Amino acid sequence: MSTATVPPVSSSTTLRNAVIRLAGNSQDGIQSIGGFLARLAGRTQHDVMTYMTIPSTISGGPSIFQLHLGSGEVLHPGDESDVLVAFYQHSYEAHISALREGGICFYDSGEVTEVKNERGIHHIGIPFTAATVEAIGGSARDRGKNMFVLGLLCAVYQLDRDKLAGIVSRQFVKKDESVLRNALLAFDAGYAYPIGDMGTFNFEEGEHKDEHRLSTDGNTLMTMGLIAAGVRYGSAYPITPWSSIMETLRSELPKYGGMYVQAEDELAAVSMTIGAAYAGHLAVTGSAGPGLSLKMEALSYASMAEIPLIVINVQRGGPSTGLPTSVEQSDLMQAIYGSHGDCPRIVLAPKDVEDCFYIALEAGKLARQYSCPVIILSDQALSSRIEAFTEPDLDLHWVEPGLDLSDRPADFKPYPLDQVTRHAPPGAKMTGGRYPHVTGLEHDEWGHPSGNPKMHQKMTDKRRNKLVDLANSLPLPEVYGDEEGDALLIGWGSSYGPIKESVNRLRAEGHKVGAAHLRNLHPMPAKLDTLFAKYKKVVVVEMNDVGMYGYGQLAMLLRASLADPKIRSVCKTDGLNFRIHEIVTGVEKIMSDV
Questions:
Q1: What do you get for the CA distance between the two ends of the chain, in Å?
Q2: pLDDT tens digits, residue range 409-466?
Q3: In what helix (H) or strand (E) does residue 539 lie, and over which residues does it extend?
Q4: 384 neighbors 408 (Cβ within 8 angstroms)
Q5: Distance between CA atoms of 417 and 75, rounded to whole angstroms?
Q6: E strand map for 188-258
Q7: Which of 121, 194, 339, 386 could bond 343 through an S-S bridge, CB–CB 3.0 to 4.6 Å?
Q8: Rounded-to-integer distance, Cα 92 and Cα 286, Å
Q9: Strands across the sheet containing 309-315
Q10: 352 C-beta neighbours (distance < 10 Å), count
């Protein structure tokens, strides 16, 4: 338990929102203390969204963690920061431009020797390292100064010290007692450190009154969603930023009678997962873009054999090794068309961290219902950022998996032309005495290989038409903002929050603008043209390249399917999430075009 006394306060300012950027090196633990602050939001009825950069090299390097704390809804990590905490000179020089005019910069006075007195920025030099050494002594200072900064920020923003110290204690509970003691000593030293006459800040009371709230990252919640959906088996190969899902499944599935295997490569992983799915279990494999490329031949087999399984692609910057720790949405075409031949499958994308849980539930439901692969396109931003939300009701959503080994009737066929495929797991008795066959070759209704041209056409129609039926059953996406007017913004994936905030700002400027977010990317809901007809322009906001023809990947699909020239693109591929001003500027430019 933290025992520091509250530092004297000269004045206190009430805030509704604050954006804090921590800038240092990857080994400084800034992600840890940023995570502590974010998790506190879920315990105090506040909202939060985080953003971080991590070097892709093993040796580490410059890194940041930014969090946007708010009393009401928080939709983006922040275009600019209110407070910058700079651990080094290079941190200060690289990020002082991201600090708003009149903002506050706390810097380690033992590391930062030159500051720029400009734009009304308040510089406060504090010896992070030296003060930590004084508090806990020894060489632990390199691991303790982050906790000193955590205590400092807790005091500056008048956060709930006991709850924050409790979060820290739970994080270190399995480590040696001295580790927790030193962490809390450093925390207390930072909390009690005098900051002169700057004064402090406190947040308005949080608007979220639901007591059952939590704050976590997208990969963690995706994993929980998979387990709730009934996933008990699968296999994968480690790759950033997918790996944490695999590691959690490996540790958690045995608790529910399941198993997750780390395979020797991507092809083995997807093949084992297909085997588990054919055996009657809901199974999952996953990777990032490079790994999905390697899985494509086997996914083509799964489409031909109509095997229900879930495939997760946590997208990152590409092509090739690309930007392993940066965000991009450049795998949409790969997900839909990546395999050889006409290869129908379902593609979904969660809109925020909370939705990672529900998209996993939906993927499990659709895989079973339509007996085909379902690909979930998450991305690096969703995988690592922390948000606060209402805890999912497991009693309402839990799916208890079961293996259907009941006897199949005499007229059973696994691939009936007039129905959706329903496999019989090995071990199920065929009362008619005839057992089905599974192959990657084109086949008849029993699965036996067939080169008959008419049969191939009928089976191609069957595999396609179940996705057509799904498209016709999907509701049109809800519109946020104006339901008709100057422009409709279309987004998918992690751009949901920034697009929604951009609509708020555009409407405040007098524009009639709405937004619709697509979670079902393939197939998309039918009759999108009736929605688009209500707007003068349709602007698709996505993090991929405009390519040879001037349109992003989703925009190209929409233009191809609807033949509507008013569909335009706002795209970027710098490895960073959209800032609000980037979307607003891009939309205003398109609206001004005649």
A1: 64
A2: 999 999 999 999 999 999 999 999 988 899 999 999 999 999 999 999 999 999 999 9
A3: strand 535-542
A4: no
A5: 46
A6: 200-203, 213-217, 233-236
A7: 339
A8: 38
A9: 259-262, 233-236, 283-287, 309-315, 373-379, 346-348, 520-522
A10: 22
